[in-house]
Amino acid sequence: MQLQNRVAVVTGGGSGIGRAICRRFGAEGAQVAVLDRDLARAQETARLLDADGIKALALAADVSNAQAVTDALGRVLEKWDRVDILVNNAAISQGDDILTIDETTWDLNLNVVLKGVFLCAKAVLPGMIAQQRGTIINIASVNGLTGLSEEPYSAAKAGVINLTQNMAIKYGQHNVRVNVICPGTIQTPIWQNRVDKDPTVFAKLAKWYPLGRVGQPEDVANAAFFLASDQAAWITGAVLNVDGGLMAGRYGMGRELEGE
Ligand SMILES: NC(=O)c1ccc[n+]([C@@H]2O[C@H](COP(=O)([O-])OP(=O)(O)OC[C@H]3O[C@@H](n4cnc5c(N)ncnc54)[C@H](O)[C@@H]3O)[C@@H](O)[C@H]2O)c1
Predict the structure, then answer these.
(1) Among 65, 136, 173, 197, which residue's Cβ finds the most Cβ atoms within 10 Å?
(2) Residue 150 lies in domain
């Protein structure tokens, strides 16, 4: 139980990776605030935690709305007095080609993916600084590291990586650690539209991954748990790829050269 009595907030905790992180943290003894813009999803995660004997609080908030974030974090403080761990996981991805998307779509991606991290971090940092302890884990993406399409989402994720590094150097003096995870393809509901169009999409994508499969939400939750725990006490500003080796090189190109 390495997160005993820690208070964690997980945004986008109502689905996929966020839900897996809530369950992993809870299994390690954390009290978990499940924040999601979709209250029913947050409540379902909280119910799963409750069934496992984990203290949970479901909160409805849009991370791109400053007032909603302040109100939701206020409820966590009311109930548990502090926030020790924040996981900025909520995201959407809409549109790709910048020639076809409009300004509203651009703004929506940036507001949820990048501004959401800014607002949630800003809400918890004063408390973390006051208690001289805290950790923030941002969930970015391999899309923030290289060109993989979904331009507005990817540009925002690149921003999340840089914001992580800047927060790490600024708040390290207060024993606040800030790290970022860059997942590759993870089998979650965010892929549902693509799966509906092509049920073989994960099998096709698996070929790009040196480890021969796409990821599961638990692969990311395990990494988030490590970064949240005291095992990572001297790790801050790290960009941790959880991507089955995707970013290690050009696997397909290597195979081509080897005539496979
Ligand atoms: N699944 C992947 O292949 C993959 C790959 C790389 C990175 N990621 C990242 O992992 C994180 C989780 O993705 P997932 O695949 O679990 O997605 P998901 O769609 O299953 O879950 C995202 C959750 O975030 C919530 N959410 C969306 N917008 C919100 C907002 N404005 N305010 C509050 N909550 C909001 C949704 O309601 C949903 O419950 C995201 O940051 C995503 O970019 C996912």
Answers:
(1) 136
(2) 7-186+216-244
